[in-house]
């Protein structure tokens, strides 16, 4: 927040970086299309493809139709994406608190002017 001498206040909006990262889930879907179409055959909808019984991705991995390297890449990217999306939500929460803070600062400034 920048407080200019003439009473104008510039409030920084959160960066665009997080917005780019939250879109990463779609990026994964495109890059790992084959794994994703396999995952539709998993027994569980919320399958993480790491240890579940009836996981079609693990079955393909064990059956040799899916390379171990590709599988590990997928798991790695998926983990990172989940991490970023979590921190994005946490940041949103903080922004809300910051918004309250800005409001109280503005109130004080307006009071002083009267
Ligand atoms: Zn699975």
Describe this structure in words.
With 114 residues, the protein is mainly alpha-helical. The chain has a domain at 32-95: Probable gtpase engc, domain 3 (Ribonucleotide Reductase Protein R1, domain 1). Helices cover 66% and strands 4% of the residues. The chain has a two-stranded antiparallel sheet with strand order 1-2. The two termini are 22 Å apart. Mean pLDDT is 78; it is low at 16-23. It binds zinc ion. Zinc ion binds next to helix 4. The site of zinc ion has 8 residues, from helix 4.
Shape: rod-shaped
Task: Enumerate how many helices there are, as a single number.
Answer: 5
**What is the first-to-last residue Cα distance?**
22 Å
Low-confidence stretches: 16-23
Task: Please give the share of residues in helix.
Answer: 55-70%
CATH topology of the domain at 32-95: Ribonucleotide Reductase Protein R1, domain 1
CATH architecture of the domain at 32-95: Orthogonal Bundle
Major sheet: arrangement of strands: 1-2
Q: Helix-strand pattern, N to C?
A: EEHHHHH
Class by helix and strand content? mainly alpha
Q: Specify the CATH homologous superfamily of the domain at 32-95.
A: Probable gtpase engc, domain 3
The count of β-strands is 2
The distinct ligands, each listed once, are: zinc ion
């Amino acid at each position: 927040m920048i407080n200019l001498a003439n009473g104008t206040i510039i409030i920084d909006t959160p960066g665009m970086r997080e917005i780019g990262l939250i879109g990463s889930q779609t990026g994964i879907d495109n890059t790992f299309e084959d794994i994703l179409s396999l995952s539709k055959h998993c027994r569980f909808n919320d399958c993480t493809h790491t240890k579940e019984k009836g996981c079609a991705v693990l079955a393909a991995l064990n059956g040799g139709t899916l390379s171990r390297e590709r599988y590990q890449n997928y798991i790695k990217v998926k983990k990172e994406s989940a991490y970023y999306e979590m921190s994005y939500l946490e940041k949103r929460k903080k922004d809300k608190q910051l918004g309250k803070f800005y409001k109280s600062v503005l109130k004080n400034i307006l009071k002083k002017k009267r």
